[in-house]
Amino acid sequence: MNAAEQEIQNAVREAFSALEAATTTQQIKEIEQAFLGKNGQIVQFAKRMGALPKEERPAFGAAVNGAKQEVQGRLDARAATILEAELARQFEEEAIDVTMPGRRTRRGNSHILHQTTLRIKQVLSGLGFVYEEGPELEEFRYNFDALNYPPDHPAMDDQDTFYVSDDQVLRTQCTGLQGRVFEKTAPPLRVFTVGRTFRNEAVDRTHNHTFHQVDCFMVDEGVSMADLKGTLGAFARAMFGPEVTVRFRPDFFPFVEPGVDYAISSPKLFGGRWVELGGAGLIHPNILERYGIDTERYSGFAFGLGVERIPMMAYGVDDLRNFLENDLRFLDQFQRQPIRGLA
Ligand code: FA5
C-alpha cells in the first residue's frame, strides 16, 4: 500500500469512527458532507489523480471508489439505525394514552325563558293566534291612553314606569300592542305577542325591573267570557298538562270589562293549590270604539301573563331574578330536560 492509499484508508477509518459515535440524523448528514460531499475528504482524493504517474492511477482510482462505497454503505446502515431509534423515541414521546378520559366539550343550549317562549308561541299559534311584535320602547299613548287609562291612574307614575321622554316609555305591559293592531287590522283577528317589559318598582323575589309577558287577544262576532275561559284552559293544559283547570276571580284593569285574574290548578302540580297566572277580561268597548270597531257587532277578549311564572311554577324556582342573572350554574339545570309537564 502506497502513501496515498494509506491516506485513503485513514480517511475511511476516520469516517467509520465518526459514524460509530454519531447518534442523530443531523450528525450523519454532517459526516456525509465531510467525507462524501463535493468537498469531502474522500472525494477530494479523486482530484489528485491527475498528479499521479499513469500506471498508479487505476489502482488509486479503484481505492478511492472502494473507499467511497465502503463509507457510503456504512453511513446508510448507520443512518437507518439512527432514524429507527429516533422514530421510536418520537412515537414514545408523542404517544396518546387512549385510556385517559376525554375532555368534554361544553354544549350550549337555549335559555330557559327562550325555551318557554318557543313553547308559548307553539301553543298559541296552534290555537289560531298570529304572532306579532311591538316595540320595547313604546309610545305613551299605546301603553296607556289607547288602553283606556284614566289620566290620573297610578301606573303612569314615575315610580312605576320608566320614562324615556314625555311621550315615550319602556313598555310596562305587552297589552300596548292592541292599539297598534287595531289601527291597521279590522276584525276578526286573533293576535298574540311575547316580549320584554319593564317596571320601575322595588325588586324582590317575584318582581324584577325587567321581565317578560305574553299578551293575547281576539276580536270577532260574539266573543264572550266563555271563549276566554276555553282558550285559557286550552293554553294552560297545553303548557302544564291535561288535568289543569282554570279559575276566574273579578279584578280590575282599565282595558277590560269585566276584568278577572285567573289561576290554574292541577291535582298533579303545585300541591293541588290554585296558582295565579295573570289578568284577563273582555276588551273594553271604549277601546274598540276608539279604533272604529263596531261594538254592536264585535267583541273581544284579552289576557296577559308573566313568562317567568311558567318555569317558576314548573320547576319550583323561587326567585325570578335568577332568570336574568345569567349564572350558568342556574341555567345549566335546564339543559336537556324539556319543560316539565308540557304536553
Ligand atoms: C298586566 O300587565 C296586564 N296587561 C295583563 C292583562 C292583559 C290583563 C290583558 C287583562 C287583559 P299585571 O300587572 O298583573 O297585568 O301583570 C301581568 C303578569 O306579569 C303578572 O301576573 C306577573 O306574572 C307579571 N309581572 C308583573 N309585574 C312583574 C314584575 N315586576 N316582575 C315579574 N313579573 C311581573
Summarize the structure.
By secondary structure, this protein is an alpha+beta fold. It contains 12 helices and 10 strands.
Can you tell me the number of structural domains?
Answer: 2
Question: What is the CATH C level class of the largest domain, in words?
Answer: Alpha Beta
The poorly predicted ranges are: none
What is the residue-mean pLDDT, rounded to a whole number? 91
Question: Bound compounds, please?
Answer: adenosine-5'-[phenylalaninyl-phosphate]
State the secondary-structure class. alpha+beta
Q: What would the CATH topology of the largest domain be?
A: BirA Bifunctional Protein, domain 2
Give structural notes.
The chain has 343 residues and is of the alpha+beta class. The protein has 2 domains: 3-93; 112-331, BirA Bifunctional Protein, domain 2 (2-Layer Sandwich), CATH 3.30.930. 41% of the residues lie in helices and 20% in strands. The protein has 12 helices and 10 strands. The protein has helices spanning 3-21, 25-36, 41-47, 57-93, 112-126, 140-143, 177-184, 225-240, 285-290, 309-315, 322-325, 328-331, and strands at residues 130-131, 137-139, 163-165, 168-170, 189-198, 210-221, 245-250, 256-265, 275-283, 298-306. A 7-stranded mixed sheet has the order 1-5-6-10-9-8-7, sandwiched between helices. Strands 2-4-3 form a 3-stranded antiparallel sheet. A hairpin with a 5-residue loop joins strand 7 (245-250) and strand 8 (256-265). Helix 2 runs antiparallel to helix 4. Adenosine-5'-[phenylalaninyl-phosphate] (FA5) binds next to strand 6, strand 9 and strand 10.
